[in-house]
User: Fold this.
Amino acid sequence: MENLQNLFQQADDLLKKKKTSASLRFPSDLKDKMAGAADKSSKLRLITGTLRSLPASFERKYGAVSREAAIVRAMQTRFAGGTEWGAAVTGPTLLPSPLSGDPSADRDTDTSTLFIAVTNGKKAAVQQIACPGDLSDPALLEAMTERAIEQAVLLLIGLLSEEPSARSLLTPAARYKKYARSPLVSFAASILPWKGDGIGDALIKTALIAALAVLVVTSGMTVSEQNAIQQNVKDIQKAVEVYTAPPTTEEESGLPEGYLSKFASLYAVNSDVTGWLTIPDTNIDLPIMQAEDNDYYLSHDLYGEKDPYGLPYIDYRVPIQKDYWAKNTIVYGHNMNAGYVFHQLIGYRDADFYKDHPFLTFDTIYNESEWVVFAAFEANTDAGRGEVFEYYNYVTSTSEEKAQWYIDEVTARSYFTNPVDVNTSDTFLTLQTCSNNRADTKLCIVARKLREGESEADFDFSSSVNNTSRVKPTFY
Assistant:
C-alpha cells in the first residue's frame, strides 16, 4: 500500500503541475484501502459506486470486459468526477489464453484478464493485465485488482509526463462517449458547452446557442415552427432509443436475409431504414433512410409522418447490398439553424474542428464500417448562378479516371488541407447539407472507408491547416 501511496502522490504532483485533474475508479470493497492511500491527493479524485450499465448493443459488439469497455468505464469515471482525465479498471473475466506459446499445452489453461484505461476524452491508452487461474481466491482477486490500480496510476503518470511508451498506447476515443452517457445527456453534451470540450468545440456550441437565441428572438419564429423543431428532436431521440434497445425475437425473425440484427427494432418501425451514421462527439447520431426518390425524407420522419425537417437519407441511385459499397454513397440531410440533423457539419469549415472529428461510423443494414474524413467543400448546384460542380452525379462509376477527378476536385475545394492518403481504389462517403448562406450553396463532407488492416491509430492529422487557396464557387 505504501507503493500505491507514493504513486498517488506522484500523480497528484503532476496533475498540479499540469494544472489539470483526474478521477480514478476502483471496486467499492477496496474503498477503505484506497482512501488511505489517496488521503493527501487534491487533484486525483477517487470514484466508487455503480456506474451506468453498458448498453446492451455495446456489450453484444465488444463484451463487458474488453479494451473498449475499459475506455467507456474511464469515460464514465471522468464524467462522474468532473475532471479532465479518467482512469478505470474493468472487472476480471476468464479468457482462454496461450501462456507458453504451445497451443496443445495451453488447451485447458484459462487466464483471468482485466483491462485498464486512461482517457482525456479524446484519446485513451489501454493496457491488459492477465493472471493464470480463475481468481476464485478473494485474496488473489484483491491483489490483482490492486496491481491493476497501480498500473492505471502509472499509466496516468506516463501520459502526464509524455513518456513515449505511454503515448504509443494512445488511440482515438471520442467515439465511445455516446456509450458512457445516457442518450439524453449525450444529446445535451453534443449541443451545449460541456466540461472537457476543446476550444473549437466550445466556440462552435456557444455560437450555435447565440444564433438560436437570435433566431428565436428576432426572426419571429412561430410557435408551430418551434414545436416542429421540438418534435423533430423527440423523434430522433426516440429513434436512438429504438436502435439501442435489444431487438425482440419476433423483430429479429422479421428481418430480411443478410440484415444486421441490430437494425431489427428499427426495421420493424420502418423498412426504409437503410443505415446509421455517427460522428463521435457531435449530435450526429442518426438513422439513415432511403426512398424511391430524393424528396420523401426531406419532409417525413421515421414513422412516415409529415416533418419539415425530415431525416437524412441516401441518394435513391445508390445500391445498398451485402458485402458491396457503391463507389460514392451520398447522404443528404437538412441543416437546421436550431442545431440539429446535419447542422454540426458546418464545423468542418475549420481545420481544428476537423482534427478533433476526423472519423465517423456509417453502418448499413448489411455492412459495418468506419470512415476517415479527408475533405469538406462548398459547391454551387444552381446553373443560373454560375459553374456547377456535379459531385452529386458521381455515384456508381467504376472509372479510375472519374475517381481521380473526384479526389482532385474535392481536395482542391476543401476548407482544410488533406493529411489522408486517398487513391482511386478507395470507397467514398459524401454527406451533403445546405450552407445556409446568402449564396444558397451546399456544404459537403467527404470520407473514405478505412482500408483492410487500418485503424484510427494509423492516422496523423496534426499537419492539416485551413486551406486559404481553396477553390470557391465562381460567383464569389
About this structure: The CA atoms of residues 44 and 396 lie 54 Å apart. Residues 94-109, 214-220 have pLDDT under 50 and may be disordered. Residues 138-160 form the longest helix (23 residues).
